Amino acid sequence: MSRTAAMVIMGAFTLYFLVPIFWLLVSSTKTLDNFNSSAALWFSPTSAQDFVGNVGRLFTYNDGIFPRWMLNSIVYATVAGALGTILSAMCGYALAKYRFWGREALFNIFLGGVLVPATALALPLFLIFSKVELTDTFWAVFLPSIVSPFGVYLSRIYAASSVPDEIVEAARIDGSSELRTFFTVAIRLMSPALVTVFLFQFVAIWNNFFLPLVMLRSQELFPVTLGLYTWNSNVSQYPELRTLVLVGALVSIVPLLVAFLSLQRFWRSGLGSGGLK
After folding, report:
1. What mean pLDDT, rounded, does the chain reach?
2. Are 167 and 50 in contact (CB under 8 A)?
3. CA angle at residue 106 from 101 to 111, to 5 degrees?
4. pLDDT tier at 273 (50, 70, 90 boundaries)?
5. Given this model, what pLDDT does residue 66 score?
6. What is the 3-state secondary structure (H, E, C) of 33-78?
7. Among candidate residues 10, 15, 46, 20, the one with its CA nearest the CA of residue 31
Protein backbone atom coordinates (compact mmCIF):
# COMPACT_ATOMS: atom_id res chain seq x y z
CA MET A 1 0.00 0.00 0.00
CA SER A 2 1.39 3.38 -0.96
CA ARG A 3 1.87 6.21 1.54
CA THR A 4 -0.85 8.25 -0.17
CA ALA A 5 -3.40 5.46 0.07
CA ALA A 6 -2.54 4.96 3.72
CA MET A 7 -3.00 8.67 4.41
CA VAL A 8 -6.36 8.69 2.60
CA ILE A 9 -7.60 5.73 4.64
CA MET A 10 -6.41 7.28 7.90
CA GLY A 11 -8.02 10.58 6.95
CA ALA A 12 -11.33 8.84 6.20
CA PHE A 13 -11.30 7.05 9.56
CA THR A 14 -10.35 10.27 11.33
CA LEU A 15 -13.37 12.00 9.81
CA TYR A 16 -15.54 9.02 10.68
CA PHE A 17 -14.66 9.41 14.37
CA LEU A 18 -14.49 13.20 14.56
CA VAL A 19 -17.65 14.19 12.66
CA PRO A 20 -20.05 12.81 15.33
CA ILE A 21 -18.11 14.69 18.02
CA PHE A 22 -18.22 17.90 15.97
CA TRP A 23 -21.96 17.39 15.42
CA LEU A 24 -22.42 16.96 19.17
CA LEU A 25 -20.43 20.14 19.83
CA VAL A 26 -22.46 22.14 17.30
CA SER A 27 -25.80 20.73 18.46
CA SER A 28 -25.07 21.55 22.09
CA THR A 29 -24.79 25.24 21.18
CA LYS A 30 -28.35 25.46 19.82
CA THR A 31 -31.76 25.96 21.30
CA LEU A 32 -34.50 23.49 20.39
CA ASP A 33 -35.82 25.80 17.66
CA ASN A 34 -32.36 26.33 16.17
CA PHE A 35 -31.66 22.61 16.34
CA ASN A 36 -34.66 21.86 14.13
CA SER A 37 -34.26 24.74 11.70
CA SER A 38 -30.52 25.49 11.22
CA ALA A 39 -27.69 23.61 9.49
CA ALA A 40 -26.74 20.43 11.32
CA LEU A 41 -22.97 20.88 11.09
CA TRP A 42 -22.57 24.60 11.66
CA PHE A 43 -23.11 27.08 14.43
CA SER A 44 -25.98 29.57 14.66
CA PRO A 45 -25.37 33.33 15.20
CA THR A 46 -26.36 33.00 18.86
CA SER A 47 -24.38 29.84 19.61
CA ALA A 48 -22.26 31.27 22.41
CA GLN A 49 -25.12 32.59 24.56
CA ASP A 50 -27.31 29.58 23.72
CA PHE A 51 -24.54 27.22 24.87
CA VAL A 52 -24.20 29.06 28.17
CA GLY A 53 -27.98 28.90 28.64
CA ASN A 54 -28.07 25.18 27.80
CA VAL A 55 -25.31 24.41 30.30
CA GLY A 56 -27.11 26.45 32.98
CA ARG A 57 -30.37 24.55 32.41
CA LEU A 58 -28.47 21.25 32.35
CA PHE A 59 -27.04 21.79 35.84
CA THR A 60 -30.29 23.10 37.36
CA TYR A 61 -32.93 20.86 35.72
CA ASN A 62 -34.89 18.64 38.12
CA ASP A 63 -33.17 20.07 41.21
CA GLY A 64 -29.68 19.54 39.77
CA ILE A 65 -29.87 15.81 39.12
CA PHE A 66 -27.23 15.94 36.35
CA PRO A 67 -24.35 17.02 38.67
CA ARG A 68 -25.38 14.12 40.92
CA TRP A 69 -25.11 11.71 38.00
CA MET A 70 -21.69 13.12 37.09
CA LEU A 71 -20.53 12.75 40.69
CA ASN A 72 -21.79 9.16 40.77
CA SER A 73 -19.87 8.34 37.60
CA ILE A 74 -16.71 9.98 38.95
CA VAL A 75 -16.95 7.98 42.19
CA TYR A 76 -17.75 4.70 40.40
CA ALA A 77 -14.97 5.15 37.85
CA THR A 78 -12.26 6.65 40.06
CA VAL A 79 -12.64 4.66 43.28
CA ALA A 80 -13.56 1.34 41.64
CA GLY A 81 -10.89 1.88 38.99
CA ALA A 82 -8.18 2.55 41.59
CA LEU A 83 -9.23 -0.37 43.79
CA GLY A 84 -9.54 -2.66 40.76
CA THR A 85 -6.05 -1.65 39.64
CA ILE A 86 -4.55 -2.51 43.02
CA LEU A 87 -6.32 -5.87 43.09
CA SER A 88 -5.22 -6.62 39.52
CA ALA A 89 -1.65 -5.71 40.39
CA MET A 90 -1.66 -7.99 43.43
CA CYS A 91 -3.12 -10.89 41.44
CA GLY A 92 -0.75 -10.35 38.52
CA TYR A 93 2.27 -10.07 40.83
CA ALA A 94 1.31 -13.25 42.68
CA LEU A 95 0.84 -15.17 39.42
CA ALA A 96 4.20 -13.93 38.14
CA LYS A 97 6.39 -14.34 41.22
CA TYR A 98 4.98 -17.24 43.24
CA ARG A 99 5.14 -20.89 42.23
CA PHE A 100 2.08 -22.85 43.33
CA TRP A 101 -0.06 -25.71 42.09
CA GLY A 102 -2.66 -24.65 39.52
CA ARG A 103 -1.01 -21.32 38.76
CA GLU A 104 -1.27 -21.64 34.98
CA ALA A 105 -4.82 -22.99 35.16
CA LEU A 106 -5.81 -20.00 37.29
CA PHE A 107 -4.16 -17.63 34.84
CA ASN A 108 -5.99 -19.28 31.94
CA ILE A 109 -9.27 -18.75 33.77
CA PHE A 110 -8.44 -15.05 34.02
CA LEU A 111 -7.62 -15.01 30.32
CA GLY A 112 -10.98 -16.62 29.59
CA GLY A 113 -12.62 -13.87 31.59
CA VAL A 114 -11.27 -11.32 29.11
CA LEU A 115 -13.35 -12.96 26.38
CA VAL A 116 -16.64 -12.89 28.30
CA PRO A 117 -18.70 -9.78 27.45
CA ALA A 118 -19.85 -7.76 30.45
CA THR A 119 -23.46 -7.87 29.25
CA ALA A 120 -23.46 -11.66 29.58
CA LEU A 121 -22.66 -11.32 33.29
CA ALA A 122 -25.25 -8.66 34.10
CA LEU A 123 -28.19 -10.99 34.65
CA PRO A 124 -26.30 -13.55 36.82
CA LEU A 125 -24.92 -10.66 38.87
CA PHE A 126 -28.42 -9.25 39.30
CA LEU A 127 -29.68 -12.61 40.60
CA ILE A 128 -26.76 -12.87 43.03
CA PHE A 129 -27.13 -9.32 44.32
CA SER A 130 -30.89 -9.68 44.63
CA LYS A 131 -30.32 -12.71 46.91
CA VAL A 132 -28.31 -10.56 49.31
CA GLU A 133 -30.60 -7.53 48.82
CA LEU A 134 -27.93 -5.31 47.32
CA THR A 135 -29.75 -4.37 44.12
CA ASP A 136 -30.55 -0.68 43.73
CA THR A 137 -27.60 0.22 45.96
CA PHE A 138 -24.22 1.81 45.36
CA TRP A 139 -22.54 -1.57 45.86
CA ALA A 140 -24.50 -3.19 43.02
CA VAL A 141 -22.45 -1.17 40.51
CA PHE A 142 -19.29 -0.64 42.54
CA LEU A 143 -18.42 -4.24 43.48
CA PRO A 144 -18.60 -5.78 39.95
CA SER A 145 -16.58 -2.82 38.63
CA ILE A 146 -13.46 -3.63 40.64
CA VAL A 147 -12.92 -6.91 38.75
CA SER A 148 -10.66 -6.64 35.70
CA PRO A 149 -9.36 -9.84 34.03
CA PHE A 150 -7.47 -7.76 31.48
CA GLY A 151 -5.79 -5.89 34.32
CA VAL A 152 -4.65 -9.17 35.88
CA TYR A 153 -3.29 -10.32 32.53
CA LEU A 154 -1.34 -7.11 31.88
CA SER A 155 -0.07 -6.97 35.47
CA ARG A 156 1.26 -10.52 35.31
CA ILE A 157 3.03 -9.93 31.99
CA TYR A 158 4.58 -6.71 33.25
CA ALA A 159 5.50 -8.03 36.70
CA ALA A 160 7.25 -11.06 35.19
CA SER A 161 9.52 -8.86 33.10
CA SER A 162 9.95 -5.66 35.10
CA VAL A 163 10.30 -6.95 38.69
CA PRO A 164 13.58 -8.95 38.93
CA ASP A 165 13.53 -11.98 41.19
CA GLU A 166 16.86 -10.80 42.66
CA ILE A 167 15.24 -7.64 44.03
CA VAL A 168 12.42 -9.62 45.62
CA GLU A 169 14.92 -12.04 47.19
CA ALA A 170 17.06 -9.16 48.46
CA ALA A 171 14.01 -7.60 50.10
CA ARG A 172 13.16 -10.91 51.78
CA ILE A 173 16.73 -11.29 53.08
CA ASP A 174 16.51 -7.78 54.54
CA GLY A 175 13.44 -8.87 56.48
CA SER A 176 10.77 -7.18 54.38
CA SER A 177 7.38 -8.88 54.46
CA GLU A 178 5.75 -9.97 51.21
CA LEU A 179 3.14 -7.23 51.49
CA ARG A 180 5.73 -4.55 52.14
CA THR A 181 7.89 -5.78 49.26
CA PHE A 182 4.90 -5.51 46.96
CA PHE A 183 3.86 -1.99 47.99
CA THR A 184 7.35 -0.49 48.32
CA VAL A 185 9.27 -2.22 45.53
CA ALA A 186 7.11 -4.07 43.01
CA ILE A 187 4.34 -1.52 42.62
CA ARG A 188 6.86 1.21 41.75
CA LEU A 189 8.45 -0.91 39.04
CA MET A 190 5.01 -1.81 37.69
CA SER A 191 3.65 1.76 37.73
CA PRO A 192 3.54 2.32 33.90
CA ALA A 193 1.43 -0.82 33.45
CA LEU A 194 -0.77 0.07 36.43
CA VAL A 195 -1.57 3.49 34.96
CA THR A 196 -2.64 1.72 31.77
CA VAL A 197 -4.80 -0.70 33.75
CA PHE A 198 -6.39 2.18 35.67
CA LEU A 199 -7.14 4.11 32.50
CA PHE A 200 -8.78 1.13 30.80
CA GLN A 201 -10.74 0.40 33.96
CA PHE A 202 -11.77 4.06 34.33
CA VAL A 203 -13.09 4.25 30.75
CA ALA A 204 -14.88 0.89 30.98
CA ILE A 205 -16.66 1.86 34.20
CA TRP A 206 -17.50 5.34 32.92
CA ASN A 207 -19.08 3.93 29.76
CA ASN A 208 -20.80 1.09 31.58
CA PHE A 209 -24.51 1.22 30.83
CA PHE A 210 -26.11 -2.21 30.93
CA LEU A 211 -25.08 -3.17 34.46
CA PRO A 212 -26.50 0.04 36.05
CA LEU A 213 -29.61 -0.37 33.88
CA VAL A 214 -30.19 -3.83 35.33
CA MET A 215 -29.17 -3.05 38.92
CA LEU A 216 -30.48 0.43 39.67
CA ARG A 217 -33.94 1.94 40.02
CA SER A 218 -33.24 5.08 42.07
CA GLN A 219 -32.28 8.09 39.95
CA GLU A 220 -30.00 9.35 42.74
CA LEU A 221 -27.69 6.36 42.12
CA PHE A 222 -27.59 6.58 38.32
CA PRO A 223 -24.28 7.13 36.52
CA VAL A 224 -24.39 9.78 33.83
CA THR A 225 -24.80 7.24 31.00
CA LEU A 226 -28.00 5.81 32.46
CA GLY A 227 -29.29 9.24 33.46
CA LEU A 228 -28.93 10.60 29.93
CA TYR A 229 -30.62 7.47 28.59
CA THR A 230 -33.66 8.08 30.79
CA TRP A 231 -33.88 11.68 29.60
CA ASN A 232 -33.53 10.59 25.99
CA SER A 233 -36.32 8.03 26.47
CA ASN A 234 -38.66 10.88 27.47
CA VAL A 235 -37.83 13.26 24.61
CA SER A 236 -41.11 12.49 22.84
CA GLN A 237 -43.03 13.67 25.92
CA TYR A 238 -40.70 16.51 26.92
CA PRO A 239 -39.00 17.92 23.77
CA GLU A 240 -36.91 20.38 25.82
CA LEU A 241 -34.92 17.40 27.10
CA ARG A 242 -33.30 16.99 23.69
CA THR A 243 -30.95 19.94 24.17
CA LEU A 244 -30.16 18.78 27.72
CA VAL A 245 -29.25 15.31 26.44
CA LEU A 246 -26.94 16.79 23.82
CA VAL A 247 -25.21 19.17 26.21
CA GLY A 248 -25.03 16.45 28.87
CA ALA A 249 -23.39 14.04 26.43
CA LEU A 250 -20.81 16.70 25.57
CA VAL A 251 -20.09 17.49 29.23
CA SER A 252 -19.88 13.80 30.11
CA ILE A 253 -16.86 13.22 27.88
CA VAL A 254 -14.81 15.97 29.56
CA PRO A 255 -13.56 13.74 32.44
CA LEU A 256 -12.48 11.11 29.90
CA LEU A 257 -10.51 13.69 27.93
CA VAL A 258 -8.87 14.97 31.12
CA ALA A 259 -7.92 11.43 32.16
CA PHE A 260 -6.47 10.56 28.77
CA LEU A 261 -4.52 13.81 28.36
CA SER A 262 -3.11 13.74 31.88
CA LEU A 263 -2.12 10.05 31.81
CA GLN A 264 -1.29 9.50 28.13
CA ARG A 265 2.48 9.51 28.72
CA PHE A 266 2.24 6.63 31.21
CA TRP A 267 -0.53 4.92 29.24
CA ARG A 268 1.43 4.80 26.00
CA SER A 269 4.63 3.55 27.64
CA GLY A 270 2.77 0.94 29.68
CA LEU A 271 0.77 -0.38 26.75
CA GLY A 272 3.85 -0.47 24.53
CA SER A 273 5.88 -2.29 27.14
CA GLY A 274 3.09 -4.78 27.74
CA GLY A 275 2.80 -5.45 24.01
CA LEU A 276 6.53 -6.06 23.67
CA LYS A 277 6.88 -8.21 26.72
Report:
1. 88
2. no
3. 150
4. low
5. 94
6. HHHHHCCCCCCCCCHHHHHHHHHHHHHHCCCCHHHHHHHHHHHHHH
7. 46
Residue 89 pLDDT > 90:
yes
CA atoms within 13 A on the CB side of 54: 29
* Best CA proximity match to 140, nearest among 73, 190, 197, 215: 215
Could you tell me the CA-to-CA distances from 206 to 90, 125, 139 in Å, in that order? 23, 19, 16
Kindly report the three-state secondary structure assignment for every residue of 122-140. HHHHHHHHHHCCCCCCHHH
- Cα–Cα–Cα angle for 122, 128, 130, rounded to 5 degrees: 100
pLDDT at 190: 87
- Residue 272: the pLDDT is 54
Side-chain-side CA neighbours of 68 within 13 Å: the count stands at: 13
- How many helices and strands in the chain, by DSSP H and E? 16, 0
Residue 33, phi then psi, degrees to nearest 5 = -65, -45
